[in-house]
Amino acid sequence: MSFDPIPYDTFGAFIHFLSVFGSAMLLALIVCLIVGVITRGTKGVADVFLAIGDFFVQMIHLSCRRIWSLSVLTIRESLRQKILYVFIVFAVLFMFAGWFLSGTADRPDLQVQSYIDFVLKAISWLVIPIMLLLSCWSLPEDIRLRTIHTVVTKPVHRIEIVLGRMLGFTLLGTVILLVMGTVGYIWINRQVPDIVKYQPMPSAVEQLESEENSSDDKTEEEKKLELEDSLLVSKVPLYGEISFTDREGAPTKLGINVGDVWMHRSYIEGATKASAIYKFKGVDESDAIKGDLVLQSSFEAFRTHKGNMEMGGILFQLTFVNEDTGLRVESPAFVNKEYSDNRMVFNRKILQKKYDGSEDVEVDIFDELVDKEGNLTVEVHCQEAGQLLGMARSDLFIRTPDRPFYVGYSKAVFGIWMPMVLVIMLGVTISCFVKGPVAILTTLTVVLVGFMSKEYMNEILSGKMEASGAIEAWYRLITHMNSQTELPPGPVKGIIGVVDAGIINFLWLCQQVIPNFGIFSNMREYVIKGFDISWSAALLPGIVTTAAYILPCLIVSFYSLKLRELEAK
Fold first, then answer.
1. Do residues 407 and 523 touch, judged by C-beta distance below 8 A?
2. Domains of the chain, residue spans
3. Residue 400 exposed, middle or buried by CB count within 10 Å (0-12, 13-18, 19+)
4. Residue 551 burial by CB count (10 A; 0-12/13-18/19+): exposed, middle or buried?
5. Quick one: average pLDDT of 156-183?
6. Right CATH number for 235-403 from 1.20.1070, 2.60.120, 3.30.420, 3.40.50?
7. pTM over the 0.85 mark
């Protein structure tokens, strides 16, 4: 995959949420107290605390029956707006999608990826915008038409109106999402064949022998053995920790930088002591597939010369190491096939070559190469001089027994459901204090910034970007000063520093308030590449992000709706 699945720090995220939420609530309380004292004197202080208590009183006296009734009313209003017409658009897309997604027969895996990508994008691009429009337009339209009066005149609390809207839109969106997800799953299974020809990755010697003795006269039994792997599968990888050694064999933090702008991979030099060391933790016999240890790699080659083009790739070798006993077992040399699944199947009883003339010895991988703590260390060496092999932590993993495709697919659909719920909460919240068109534009802006600008904001706030301040950038642009030159000392530099610091702090606050929708987009890539979605690296961050906005949205929407004049058009 093109990213590194890092486990989510739940405790750190919870502490961060408490600090940001607590700071925001304290700041809002201070502002309200100041405004209350200015407008109403000492009585304003009591009014502020009474308003705070009103929220908790209404939360305690919530009625599930009233909330459900408001949810049903919300669903009926949405159906009257012909929301189900979205299924017509969805059906038209699937009727003609096969015409434009046809691929080549020699790369069926890429064709499957395009099918899955199309289905998940079609679902998300239809469901989320519709829910955004409904959630932003419904409440302001009720206020404009004064139909909201039939609700507020009943014994119903403001917070129940908000919860009823959110729950109603969520239920409606969930039903639409389930229907689309089911249809999409059936369509993918109809388009994709059940099996594909697959053989374990041969060693370099085996590859040369097979090319020399190539023949189409295969028995039926051999052909059946090739039909082993399904195109629709959810692979369950076991990732390790990666470290490097330099060309002298000394430990180093990273490998060689070959000039790539994207620093995802580091490179090791061929025909030297340079290596990448993967340490897999918690390895046991349950990770084997039919008793064999299966490793899968996706290394990237950097060539300084043409090399041996007959091999079709750069040679590399794996060395299994038991750090407790010092036992080392080298594998045969493999040819790195770029942009393909390089799956290396090792029998549990691996042969340790003896170069001193003695007889080779069989070594049990799980009993003798896995140390006492359950760690398996694998060293990767590039075998060709003048060539470099690039790798990241996610480029080599132990492939444990696969799960059915519907497991990963259902998690991907759940990954669409979470941002849909988040968009509904934001849309209902913003529509509580502005009108429909403004609410749509505001919510859409928040979603787009959360999808596309989070990394840019992180780069500015990290201080790594030169002349990242807005005023400093304008000053340098006007005075034709490059970013490496220091600003001249004086009052101008001080004023620029103070103003830019205020802008940076405001940007930091915006960064904390705006949801990171990029968390949800990674889930789709898992399924497209044939992986099961990781709980700790993908699902948990999405669930925590969605849940973190429930309480703030309820608080903001409650006070916005309470202070809003419902008679206003």
1. no
2. 12-61, 63-192+405-452+531-563, 235-403
3. middle
4. exposed
5. 90
6. 2.60.120
7. no
